[in-house]
Predict the structure.
Amino acid sequence: MALEDRATARLGRSLVDGFTADRVVRALVRIRRERNVGGDDRAALRRGLDLISRVSRGDWAFEGQEPDRRTLGSAGVPGEGPSFFLHAEEEANVRRLQRNLKRLLQREIPTGTDFAEIEDFFVHLSQTILKSSQTIERRPRRPGSVLLGARLWRSSPEVGETISSAPR
Amino acid sequence: MAIQSGGWRDHLIRAQIARSRAFKDYLTALRAREFSSDLPRELLSFYDAVNDGIVAKLQDLRGDLLFRDFGDDAAEVHLVRYSELYQFLYSVTSDLEHVEASRTIVEFSPLLHRLALPHSKDLRLVLHALPEVNYSWADPVSLLRDIARQLEISVDESPPSRNVWSIGFPGLQPGQTLVHTLLSHELGHGIVHSESSLGSLRAQVRISAERIKALVQGVPPGVPRAPVRRFLRRYLNRVLGKWVDEIACDVIGYTLTGPAFLFASIHFLPALAALDSASQEYPSIRLRLSLLFRLLKAELGYSPREVCTDAQYEQWFIKEGAARFLGEWDRHINADAPPYGDNPHDIVAEAIDQSFEALLQAIGSKVQRLRRYRFTDHRDQVRQLVGRLDFSVPPNELDQPPRAVADAVCIMNAGWIAYLSLVEPLSSEHGWDEWTTRSRIEEWVAKALELQEVQRRWDEVSSNGG
């Protein structure tokens, strides 16, 4: 569409958000191991709080979904089936996540279940942001930037393969 | 070794490192080129520093005990995200292949600087051709610095230290000077992006609860209403946010360049999409043009919602052709508009339509530093410049005393009026076909922009004592 805040800029912002979510996951892994909250962890957790509030506002939730009368009445009705967003957008869940993240910021480590929920949330968010960024239309460009399918890497971890011979 | 050698994580890390080497080769090849300014070379060095940081980060991941403790899903997503990062790096770097003067609309660079300067004093611009019929804006340096911070890569000290906006224009249309008035919309994106308080603009627009209720009531029996309502509210708010940003950029474009922005929008937008098609990201072209018409009519002293006649437009736009063009499009956009329907995009469009004056006031209060171009204040100057074009002369200077350098935005407005009005008389006078005449008018406008810039600089040097 014309006059756009270009797809590349959207991809860039998606990368900022995605790596931020990964950084929060990393901070949580460290906190779980060390049982303490360091200064760098707190900086990451503060960005995590911002990501939670953006999820609750609907960011990343509507890629490819443009509801109209027909889709609202079809099998795709929101509220049906398991969904990261349905869970994440429930106000009670958002409030609990925010509360527990704030406790972490005050260097108070939540219980096992609450902690696991925070970790689970950010891992899912990280995946969702990646999937969402992969829907951004790209211009054709150099072969060096062809996206790798990691699932293929997982199932065929042959040692010594180069990028050019990798399964795609 | 924290990560098993030969395991999939190790394999993927090595693949990404190989990708970074290929990217470095690409940077090296580009550095061998000549550029007309220092900025592309500075950007290449910056991207190189980012790339080096990524390689070091990937190498560290191999021995990283925390990364070993990532679950497989989290590790996979993190590693694949580097592929996306290289997509981004290739994209912003390949823009630099298209900044050479011969492929770039050099006349616009100083003008865009001057238009944006009151808002962004430290601004540096990269104007580059795009391999598509589109305009674009990006702030690659800030984005990469932010990404680097999340990856704990240090590139904060690497130049460029100032604000860099990368603005793309349709590469197939380098000679179409007049349509490039739309670059002022892209400046709008930079301004909207840097004015965080512009985020509050969407609060000016209220979405009707009644309309949402009606839409929810329309879903088939048996479907739970509460989640549908919640879903819709979030969706509408998201769409509203995106559309308000686009409309704010249109308002800024009009503020900077006046009716020329409307002429260019009418010329460019309907050629690309159906008038009433909207998406999550962009409002319909009809809504955008309709709001621009309201800005024009408010400036000319007409009621913003009335459909004006050709004669009303002719009072202002000097020549019959330009007035007829506006009259026809005013009727097409506004008189022939279908009523708003019962669908989410129409609900947002209607809300913006009804709250436009409040939105306009809020945008105006946030961008007060910008130089506002009032066509009504410059009509006499524009009339003189149209007269020059009528004599096949580049409109870079005013004829009537005091003889002076023409204002660049007046040149654009005069160029549009000539383009829409003078093709027939000039064609018959010179024996040119229509296409040749149109191309000549574009060339005269481009030449005038260049000459007025030279004259302006000469005046600056002279006034500083030479």
In short: Chain B has a mean pLDDT of 89.
